[in-house]
């Protein structure tokens, strides 16, 4: 039996920290503009204008992020029997389970790492260009869980259950590998 779909929402309690810090940076911006306007030397004025610009950038980005976190109430990441859907992208698409070779939950970096199934007709150049980013990111596709409320144990078991249900292990037994190559099933010497 498949587990229930998991809907991961943005953490809204982080607004407790973001909003006051955004207001503090807005106050720093106002103070820097006031002191730059009142400065008597150009060097001091330039220093305060630079500080005002930095405070404006930080206050704007934090204010925008906190406004989005307050306003957006739909789930950010959906994990169900169809696959994994990241709704934070501008063009959300579902990554189906059958396209995934391996799915790993990384608690240290708070990410879901996905290794895609290789295409059988891929050229050597294509294989190398697909492998190099995989070494850097540790997966073909990485879903960040930063800022999302999740239960790691429930998420891990659900990922395993959905992936196992969509991609059951093959029942075919591969012949054992010996030092001379695959073992022969006819009882004769191993083919060379």
TrEMBL record:
Region (Disordered): 170-192
Protein origin, superkingdom: Bacteria
Ranges annotated as spanning the membrane: 12-37, 43-63
UniProt keywords, alphabetically: Membrane, Transmembrane, Transmembrane helix
Protein name: Transmembrane protein
